[in-house]
Amino acid sequence: MESQEKPIANGEDGKLPLELEEDLPGVETSLLNVPSKCAEQAEEFVKKVWAAGWNVAHHDTLPDWLKDNDFLLRGHRVPTNSFLACFKSIFRIHTETGNIWTHLLGMIAFLGIAAYFLTRPSIEIQWQEKAVFSAFFMGAILCMTFSWVFHTVYCHSERVGRFFNKLDYCGIALLTIGSFVPWLYYSFYYRLEPKVTYLALIIFLGTICIVVSMWDKFAQPQYRPLRAGVFVALALGWLVLMALLYIVGAVIYAARIPERIFPGKFDIWFQSHQIFHVFVLAGAFVHYHGISEIANYRLTLGDCIAKEFE
Questions:
Q1: Which sites bind Zn(2+) (predicted)?
Q2: Which of 31, 192, 217, 278 has its CA 20 to 30 Å from the CA of residue 162?
């Protein structure tokens, strides 16, 4: 009787060479596994390339146009000159991660609220209310959108970063203007003259903020207190709690607290700009609740108020 076939070293029988079998005890050695191993190696290579492409840098190594906050020392993105690379960085950890996600999630939240509000049947919400609230929704959504996009593409190049920085500031002004529309509409529900006067005033002030925001020097680090002051001045007419939230956030942003006190300790999380974003988002939600209450009051008890002007 002939003996059983011996393993062929060159793999002609569909098995790996004997020396490789000895190195891989208990593992299927069929050549059918070779493609899967190649795929695993390719996947590992891609992961290494991906990780290498997102190395973060120290503040001192950045170009001057990326040095916005001297108290954030590590975890900065380097210039990419690629929009694809910038948007991939949304899912990486760096100094702008919190700034991106606070307002990206805020944008998604307000898109959902706006969609629900505007699709209600007319028997629940009339078209006048939808039109008035749309101004606020538009301002909030644009503000959040300009903000997270700016923080995403800020490291693309100096030209791109400067342009989207201007849009970021414009978004704050648009949120302010949009917030005033329903507040003035319901506060002067039966008085057209003051309603139009105050609305024209806030649009005028908001336009000034937008014009100033488009000024190149306005975005430079030394003008941080001026930027905060301009938007604080515009915010003074909001509902009290919302104005307080916004102003406190702006003061924290201007003072660069807490990273000024503990340099390098808040490079990734809980830095002043992230706190400012959270306050803006909270203020927007408070304002939405406030104007909803005012609208409900005017629509349910407005007849009693109207008699005062008869």
A1: 151, 273, 277
A2: 278
List binding-site positions for Zn(2+).
Answer: 151, 273, 277
Q: Residues 146-190: pLDDT tens digits?
A: 999 999 999 999 999 999 999 998 898 899 889 888 888 877 666
User: Nearest Cα to 284, choosing from 78, 156, 77, 133?
Assistant: 133
Tokens 């993105």, residue?
77
22-44 residue pLDDT tens: 444 544 545 445 556 666 776 66
Q: By residue range, what is the domain housing residue 23?
A: 1-52
Both tokens of 9, joined, read 């070293």
Residues 180 and 277 in one domain: yes
Closest among 281, 278, 285 to 98, alpha carbons compared: 278
Q: Are residues 77 and 29 in the same domain?
A: no
Instruction: Note if the bond before 182 is cis, omega within 30 degrees.
Output: no
- Asked whether residue 44 falls in the same domain as residue 66, the answer is no
Rounded CA separation 266/245 (Å)? 21
Residue 99 contacts residue 278 (beta carbons within 8 Å): no
pTM recorded for the entire structure: 0.70
Q: Report the length, in residues, of the chain.
A: 310
Which tokens hold the place of 110?
């307000």
13 and 113 in a single domain? The answer is: no
Instruction: Report the number of distinct structural domains present in the chain.
Output: 2
